[in-house]
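Researcher: Let's walk through a ligand-bound prediction step by step. First, I give you the protein sequence. Second, the SMILES string for calcium ion. Third, you return the three-dimensional complex as structure tokens. Ready?
Model: Ready.
Researcher: Here are steps one and two:
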Amino acid sequence: MNLELLPGEGTNALSADAEDAAHSHYPLAVEYVGRVPAFEGISMIIVRLDDAMVDLGDVLLRLNLHGMSSNRVRIGVGHVGGGPADDQGAVPTPAPATPPPTPTPTPTPTPKGKIYYVNLLGSDSNPGTRALPFRTIQHAADVVNPGETVIVQDGVYTDKDGDGAIVRLNRGGASGSLVTFRSEHRWGAKLDGLNNSAKQGFKFTGSIGYVRIEGFEIYGMGNNLGSAAGIELYSGGHDSETVGNNIHDVGRLCTSTTKGQDGIFVQQNNVLIEGNIIHDIGRYGPGENGCSNPTFWEHNDHGIYIHTGSGYDIRNNVFYNHVHGWAIHFYPDPVTNTNVFNNTFAFGNPNVGGTHIVIAAALTNVSITNNVFYDTASTGKIIYLSSPGTQTNVLINYNLARSATMFNTTPPAGITQSNNTLSTDPLLVSPTTSDFHLTGSSPAKDTATTISSITKDFDGNTRPQGAGYDIGAYELPH
Ligand SMILES: [Ca+2]
Ligand SMILES: [Ca+2]
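Model: Step three, the predicted complex:
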């Protein structure tokens, strides 16, 4: 078809749907868009038919881009015939004089195996199809197998069985066959802890791993007497991925527990944390919402609490308002082989010198690179060193910060700083309203060091654009 995408747009700019004879509508995933070689201005699109579309006969299919829709085309699914009447004015598509060659698209990873659906109007005695979905994510978690996907449809999900976790993950995937839990629409499926009734949103158990958690809004967890987390990888969770989630308002209560209230708690190896937004974590301070005499409110609750482990890849995340702890907390045991790449941090902890990251553990082979640190003034620090122990091959480079000073104290040997730009406003769109995109004149534009493994930004736009990679979670233009 003939279409024009704006710079940076891809499949995310397109949507498709189909209608069957019963006038049921099916949203279709657009999996590929690309140019047809040798045919100027003609693009090819691949859409995935919905799982529920079994032997429907004819359906009418259309594509939508920039608020416009194509004419609908008739295709047969399972068999030819039947289907809704043609749209008014429809004419048969003439065969092209020269059939275009069939291009070979870039393969898109597709879910292997079965897809289950969860919907607030479903039932856990259903088979979990789109037509007959489950009611609880927990039930899906109790039956899912390696390589299978759970699609959670829009709505607010709570801890129905009252065991403290909204979803207790008992069954994992395997190498090359992740179990995937995905919100059908980004942040449309919400895990609500109901004002600190639940302690965890997703809680890994046993020694399972290889699970991907994608696109959820997770909030409201808290624990007056112990720890709480939006996603907890304490027991289990190795080789897992948390991608594109909005995790906020965890531990918003008055407590004196020593235990952390965290966005993500992790002590498992090989974990990808990408494209999440994590904000407003932690307990009330004195006088906040009537809270009197809390303890540990200055620095116990964190965006990502890394207890120990190896192989963390923390990239393209946005952190803000971590004022009762740090956006990233390395404590207490060793962490190795970890990258903190292209994140945006805003509003460091005013109780600990305005810092965003604490290093209170021995780190080996850790890079903190291409991050934006935004604060309202240049007086705060960026990284807090608290009895950090032996540091080995820790590289802090190509970061851009409003602050004038990287550390609260002289860093130990083993920490190398290079090419950081301090005392420089990153010129974000509107930090006070939580819009941390870059403005066109931002000094973050095109000044990152190239990390070619990072091909997208927080919004899913392709990196790089323009003359080079941008620092922080966002690439211009947006
Ligand atoms: Ca539960
Ligand atoms: Ca750029």
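Researcher: And what stands out?
Model: The longest strand covers residues 25-35. Residues 445-446, 464-466, 468-470, 475-476 surround calcium ion (ligand 2) (CB under 6 Å).
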